Amino acid sequence: MVFPTDAPEAKVVLDSIQGTWKIESSRSLGGGGGSVFEPKRGKLLSVRGHILTMPSDSAGGETRKTIGVAKMPAAANGTVIEIDHRGDFQVADEVDADPKAIGRLSKGWSRHALVRVEGDTMTLSVVFPQYEPPSDFEPTDRGEVVVLKRQGPPLDPTTPH
Predict the structure, then answer these.
(1) pTM of the model as a whole
(2) Domains in the chain: boundaries
(3) Which of 43, 44, 91, 115 has the highest count of CB atoms within 10 angstroms of its CB?
(4) Residue 129's Cα: distance from chain center in Å?
(5) Rounded to whole angstroms, how far apart are CA atoms 149 and 155?
(6) What's the Cα-to-Cα distance from 1 to each of 17, 37, 80, 108, 143, rounded to whole Å?
(7) What is the rounded distance in angstroms from the CA atom of residue 21 to the CA atom of residue 121?
(8) Selection from 14-23, 139-148, 151-160 with the highest mean pLDDT
(9) Handedness of CA 107, 70, 34, 31 (dihedral sign)
């Protein structure tokens, strides 16, 4: 269960993660952790509004995820968010385009994550959705801990690419 994106509880978290971010590192303990950020290390992702966009494996494409702020008590060191697969898009598609309406539905990963932003550094502790959301930033065999660095000012969520 997540807050509506315009709820004050969601807005404060979403505002803090707006922008372009470089994936600096990813750590896990292996096993079934599903390291989805590790193969993208060194690449850029962006957050506009409640949409996370990252490079896909196809030329000219990108994968988009919907970010929701969980209706859970905030951990002392971060906030739990839900990252849900939206679809695989072309870069020219509108940021908030309906994937079903434009034929971009696809299978992809969804995760629980604990997020913390300190200055221009965002840290995510990410696990599969069948597990409890993370409560710390220690790597496990069920997920990964990702460090990202902001690459410029926050993006305006109301403007297209």
Answers:
(1) 0.87
(2) 1-111
(3) 115
(4) 14
(5) 14
(6) 20, 24, 11, 20, 21
(7) 9
(8) 14-23
(9) negative
Task: Tokens 């990813």: give the residue.
Answer: 26
Rounded Cα distance between 68 and 17, Å, is 12
Amino acid at position 146, single letter: V
Q: Are strands 51-55 and 44-48 parallel, antiparallel or unpaired?
A: antiparallel
- Residue of 116, 107, 73, 68 whose CA lies nearest to 87: 107
Residue range 15-61, pLDDT digits in tens:
999 999 999 999 988 755 567 888 889 999 999 999 999 988 777 78
Name the token pair of 130.
């069948």
Measured CA to CA, the distance from residue 25 to residue 149 in angstroms comes to 10
Rounded Cα distance between 148 and 22, Å, is: 5
Is residue 32 within 8 Å of residue 141, measured between CB atoms? yes
15: part of which helix (H) or strand (E)?
helix 8-16
Res. 72 pLDDT band, cuts 50 70 90: confident
Token pair for 84: 């849900």
CA 144/CA 28 separation, integer angstroms = 4
Neighbours of 18 (CB within 10 A): 17
